[in-house]
Design goal:
mainly alpha; 434 Repressor (Amino-terminal Domain); four-stranded mixed sheet; 17 helices; disordered N terminus
Length: about 350
Amino acid sequence: MINTMTNEYLPDFVSPPGETLLEMLEERGMSQAELAERTGRPKKTINEIIKGKATITPATALQLERVLGAPASFWNDREQHYRESLARQAERDSLEGQVGWLSQFPIKEMVNFGWLPQAIDPIEMLENVLNFFGIAAPTQWQRVWEMGVAFRQSTAFESDPFAVSAWLRRGEIEAQQTDCAPYDNDRFLSALGKVRELTAQPPAVFHPETIALCAEAGVAVAFVPELPKVRVSGATRWLTPNKALIQVSLRYKTDDQLWFTFFHEAGHILKHGKREVFIENDGDKDGKEDEANQFAADFLIPASEYRPFTARSGYYSKDEIRDFAQRLKIAPGIVVGRLQHDGKMPSANCNDLKQPFEWANN
């Protein structure tokens, strides 16, 4: 995926602009007292500027331009770079005592997925993680992620809140990079009908098409690899009143589970409020989850088709399943998964009709 961060050289130390000012005075044989007279600034201020104790204000920069000839923009830039250098060094000193926070995240996997740049220096890696989360310090992670009521109430966070937050954040980032039209309920239903037919296609086809179709209806879709200790198959939330996010992992690694999760999340968007956040894992069981489950089941295999197909008891051949799936224009694995879930087929039968998926290495 796209990484918007670029590497740039940041020197460990930038000399104060006062050093440059002192060099110019020496070249011209001008004393600090004379510069003070010519600029109208107090001698003390000139001396403090040279020592780096006082800042060069925009007004002072203009005065130095008139007296010494160097453009005001030169002095303003030197001052800005120097103060930024001081701030970065102070921040680095502060972060040095917080690098232990990194051990709680699956850094290796995040780097392998391309979510974080490589870094040998622990402080640099800490800065990378802060940039990833879009926060200024580790203390902000707790406020943004742990303190969110909807997130905190999910049993998914009982396993590993740090890994779960990283997985959710990656979905946010991908959604931010997805241009979406304002959400429209009818367009989304229409898009879901087209996505349903994409279930029989390989990932190279369904992945970009699903994202594009849903974006036209105001829903960003992010297929995000599973991280260790993240027992989450999908998540749904509204990023703005006009933009929703469906985030899906490959926790179960087969097409029936992937597509059921996707349409389950779509059910939350269609049926439940925009203020709610849904993070799906094995521990989340309530009425809204049941509604989303029913929506996914019926949308993938309409009851009017499923009941006649399962009216009889007994063995279902692979040819029967393929023919039924072809008639519905869905992947055969979805039919197998439904039959197994409903107890109409042993869980060991026909699994070769399911399409296995795995994430390609970046």
